[in-house]
Amino acid sequence: MNAILHLASLGALALIPAVACAATTNTKRCVELEVPVPIVATNQIFDQPRVDSTIDAIDWTVWVSTRTTLPARDRVIKDNPIKDIFKINAQLCVPSDKGPKADILQIATPGLGFDKRYFDAEVQPDEYSYVNAALKKGYSILTYDRLGTGKSQKPNAYDVVQIPTEIEILASLTKIARSGKLISSSKVLSSSRTTVSDFEPSKVVQIGYSFGSFLIQNVLARYPELSDGAVLTALYPNTIPFAQMIDVLHYDHEYPKENDPARFSEYGSGYFVLSNKADLQKLFFQKRSLDPALLTYTEKIKQPETLGEYASEGLSSYLVAEDFKGPVQFFIGEFDNFVCRGDCRGIYDPTEANRIFPHSNATYYLQPNTGHAPGLSKNASAGYEVMLGFLDSHNL
Fold it and tell me: Secretion signal: which residues (predicted)?
């Protein structure tokens, strides 16, 4: 849904409480946290219209796609230094039995339009929840709501919720987790009858989806010491020219408070959300692997985006991860309508993949009959086996 993915075309494990997460058939031990995440970043203030209504949201969609609208780099008014501590909602889950992978922590970053529930579906969770799949293989996993989504803080949508801020939030959250102080430095939100203590992971693996995968790529380049490997889903270096990519005009947006006043009451100026299930299907799904219950679920959990995210994409790109040497897998739906104009076969660009990951021997995998949301498709569990098998093959 964003220009960056166009560029992609271009110690002992402590006792964690058993709390109420999504209903599953396997034991799931999770704790919900409010993590104070300190960051320093440099955003920009852009010349751009305001969005204070659905009429504004549609007008912005047309404006940003108009051929005479200046590119983002030419609309920068000034730098906007950010030094703040943001409240980020996160969930840490650990396997019931401590095995050899329990001290490997996966950190999962969702994409635009979603919060952490993308990785932990409540519809047939034993089939569709990536959190459940990782736990069954013995991993610990941390999911979180990106800034401006879910239960995380919702600051200024124009000047604060931008890519540089979100990159630094992921890096800072990873540092906190690696330090072994994630729980002790956070506010525990879930009720608990047992002792909650920290654990220090031996390794950290980044799991990304779409926009979240792009954020991870930048973190791996800027902070290579923080991670040991990555699986980047819905991201795929390929040979389609930028000018041929699908743009935002293909999808209708609404002002969140008008789209769903009860659900989106906290969202103010500069936020917008995909309008309805038809737009969600166009962007995220492929009919051959579409479960209608998951389309309904996607509508239920959809999240707003910000003008700041879209504008900052114009100043963002892949960075060369020169000092990152961990394994990387690009995982893409075979018929991703957004990244590949509906067909990802035969267009993988190994030259670009090796340019941005020169020491990772990056590989790719096409998930059959799947669109832009592989984690919400009928064959999600088969895809998870591929992802987790890739990590296991690299001793992660």
Answer: 1-22
